[in-house]
Amino acid sequence: MRTPKLITILLLALIAALFFIPFLGRVHLFDWDEINFAECSREMLNLDDYTRIYVNFKPFWEKPPMFFWMQSLSMKIFGINEFAARFPNAICGIVTLIVLFICGTRLYDRKFGILWALAFGGSLFPNMYFKSGIIDPWFNLFTFLALYYFILYHWKRNGFDKEGVNKKPVFYAIWSGIFMGLAILTKGQVALMVFLMVLGVYFFYNRFRLFFNWGHALLFLVATMLVTLTWYGYETAKNGPWFITEFLKYQYRLFTTHDAGQAGFFGYHYVVLLVGCFPASLFAIPAFFKGRYTSRYDKDFKIWMILLFWVVTILFTIVQSRIIHYSSLAWFPITFLAAYSFYKWDRKEMDYKKYVGVLTTILGAIIAIVLLAVTLIALNIRRLIPYVHDTFAQANMAADVHWSGWEGLVGILLVVTIIVGLIQLRKRNFINAATTYFVGTGLVIFLAAAVIVPKVEKYSQAAAIEFFEQRQGEDCYVTTLGYWSYAPFFYTHKEKPANPNSYEEAWLLKGDIDKPVYFVTKVDRVDDYKQYSLKELYRKNGFVFLKREVPAK
Fold first, then answer.
1. CB within 10 Å: which end of the chain, N or C, has fewer?
2. Strand pairing partners for 480?
């Protein structure tokens, strides 16, 4: 590896670490997914069982174990806390930007590699998710790498004019299979489904010309299987097929039905990607159209990325459960296409379209207004309480949170970013424009995570989580009433129950309990439990905290 390239990688890793690692533990984990996954990892450590996933000490077959292995290792190092739960994704952020730089440099040159890394790291949701404790960043990276290595395999086998692709086809086929196996171990067989659908659409696009060798395809599947057998095979051999069977049933249900609160309108994912992948989503638009290509690989890789985008978005539009991160794999093609637009504009190989600057300014202004409105509303939130008719929301808004007004600088920074970026676009300084938009947006997210998110969280769940934390080490039961949360498990550091009755709400409310029970409910639901002998401890920010003592004998 040439020294300038190595220096760029090290510098990129340092900058990514500075953007993604600070403030990981500044705010509590959010229900449901963050706390759910962190609790699975905590129980993995608690039970010293690294092959079967549990939550509330019951089998949890919704996800494979790869991400939980990462989190449990992080918790061994940093302890059971928010920082440890989110640290694996911060590492994923660093690795992802380096991977994109290396891939972009191999595809075109160093400038494109930097543009692609900038586009990914400087767009809203791709950046934010590296500060989270959910599975998708690693799943997306592994799935993308599986497809990327298969593209390299295709190029090598079919004589594409690409320097640097100097290994034998079998090398790229095996590595594609290894990364596919890792993707399946991270989130399930949906990775293989997306991968095969993209290959199928490409096969159709190429007028049914076979672009791979069946022996190499078998080798890909063998590599995939060997990686996945480290869990699927071991779990089945150790405990029988029940757990894996339930896991596969859940995956099928996920694609055919939607859970409560997970339905959405038909174009849901396109709106999510347009806003969530700002500003890359808008700069990607011109690259969707036919352009002038400098080589076979230039055209071919762009086609692969466009196909990946449409397969992901159409598939998860068809799927009944619509959740924001389901379409997050599309961040890779979107950010590639955004980098592609800037790169081609700079080289005068594609005409700049003024509408892109206009649309970016409009959407950026809307996001900036929202950020400014958060501060403005927060400063006057108590005045707004009489106009809100939801009892729980009213109590949330009454939380004692200090806002100085300086938080509005986050929104102002985005305004400055939009203005300076637009000026650079009009001057046709496209590389400077890309740097302005993506670095500016990255700084906005960094500051929002440090300044705004912790204060907003105090209105929503902080009071309940602080109560759960106070129960750590106390010999008691803790649960919620009238709503579901994973927080009582993770934040009380719950131990495996000795009494199976403790799983039954009716027993906790009126049964012959063997230790005190704490209940957390909401102000608009507490009246539903008046008939039980519960002592109200206090109320805070919309939550009501109750206790039931052990009945006298």
1. C
2. 520
Are 112 and 346 contacting, i.e. CB atoms less than 8 angstroms apart?
Answer: no
313-338 per-position pLDDT tens digit: 998 888 765 677 788 999 999 999 99
Residue 32 preceded by cis peptide, ω within 30: yes
pLDDT tens figures, 489-508: 999 999 999 999 999 999 99
Q: Within 13 A of 295's CA, how many CA atoms are on the CB side? A: 11
Q: How many CB atoms are located within 10 Å of the residue 134 CB?
A: 22
CB atoms closer than 10 angstroms to residue 259: 11
Tell me how far apart the alpha carbons of residues 234 and 417 are, in angstroms, rounded to a whole number.
52
Residues 428-438 as b or e (16 or more Cβ within 10 Å = b): eebbbbbbbbb
What stretches of 123-168 show up as alpha helix (H) in DSSP? 124-129, 136-157
**Rg (the chain; Cα; Å):** 25
231 DSSP assignment: T
Place of tokens 């290509």: 293
Pairing of strands 543-548, 517-522: antiparallel
Q: Reading across the β-sheet that carries 477-480, which strands appear in turn?
A: 477-480, 517-522, 543-548, 535-540
Of the candidates 60, 66, 42, 111, the residue with the CA atom closest to the CA atom of residue 435 = 111
Amino acid at 500: P
The SS3 of residue 78 is helix
Alpha carbon separation from 424 to 124, 355, 428 (Å, rounded) = 21, 15, 6
| Whole-model pTM over 0.70 | yes
**Which tokens is 320 given?**
């009944």
